[in-house]
Amino acid sequence: MKKQYPALALGVVAALLLSETAVVADERPDHTRDTLDRIDEVADAVAAEESAAYPEEFFSSGRPEEVTIGSEPDSALRVPLPDGEEILIGMPAPDRARASVGASGTMLFAGDSADFSSAVRTEDGGTARLLLYIDSPSAPDEYRFDLDLPEGGELVELEDGGAFVLDGNGDMVGTVAPPWAVDADGAPLPTELTVQGDSLVQRVEFGEDTVYPVVADPFWIPALMVGARITAHAAGQMAKRKVSQKVVQQVVQNGKKTAGKGNTSVFVQGKGKNRIRVVVNNKNGNIVTVTKG
């Protein structure tokens, strides 16, 4: 049976906002508040599914810096870094987009075009969810998320469809998980995330059978969400070999474990060119080395 998503509630957001100014959800008509509530319901359901895939013991005890949401699309998400720097993430939005805040803090950007709108909301642990609501086949099939990185910062594309975010010192300060997209019937659509300079570009492939609206979602994950914290050396190795954070997690959870040199453990999974080797410092849980092949 095909999984059903209450995506229709998401898709009508842009149309509902077209004739209204930016106000708080509680000041809106009941049906609009209900729609925003259903948006959060969908995001909550997806968040629950994703958290189930990442066991609690893999999360860090450290507390990430809190991300904050802005009211302008070009600075929709502000991500503070431990060294005092910050990353700004811009959202794609229609022309003359207006911001509207839901009761739970979800920020919606909608404009004169009913083809698509976008939204951002914070999640637990300093993460944030970026959402696209694509309402018709005339909507663009590419959406650009511009990042204002610290000097020397870099985006690194991963072979699993996600990306690393490195600061000017080469330390991994966050990841973007592989994106997903579903239509109004819950059917998954082909989608990909590519790196273009300091921008992430999500492409969604529509088909003749696509039922609108389409909901698409890349996802920011700060580095401190990783329980075994990744050192700059390991992050550089992962970026060079295009080994994702999720793959490292799988190796640590499911790979063959042996004692390493000093107070370390070695986890190995796969064969030949796909063999992944992860070395973990037993004292502090840091991932110190990641090799492939």
Quickly list its features.
about 290 residues; alpha+beta; about 35% strand; disordered N terminus; signal
How would you write the strand order of the largest sheet? Answer: 4-5-6-7-14-11-10-9
Number of helices: 5
Q: In whole angstroms, how far apart are the ends?
A: 39 Å
Query: SSE string, helix = H, strand = E?
Result: HHHEEEEEEEEEEEEEEHHEEEE
Anisotropy-based shape:
globular
Total DSSP E strands = 18
CA gyration radius, whole angstroms: 20 Å
Helicity, as a percent range: 10-25%
The unreliable regions are 1-32, 53-63
The fraction of residues assigned to DSSP E strands is: 25-35%
What is the count of distinct domains? 2
Mean pLDDT: 73
Q: Would you tell me the structural class of the helices and strands?
A: alpha+beta
Could you describe the largest sheet, including whether it forms a barrel? Answer: 8 strands, antiparallel
What does this structure look like?
The protein is α+β, with helices and mostly antiparallel strands and 293 residues long. The chain is built from five helices and 18 strands. The chain has two domains: 219 residues, no CATH class; 61 residues, no CATH class. The strands form three sheets. An eight-stranded antiparallel β-sheet has the order 4-5-6-7-14-11-10-9. It has a six-stranded antiparallel β-sheet with strand order 1-2-3-8-13-12, with no helix packed on it.
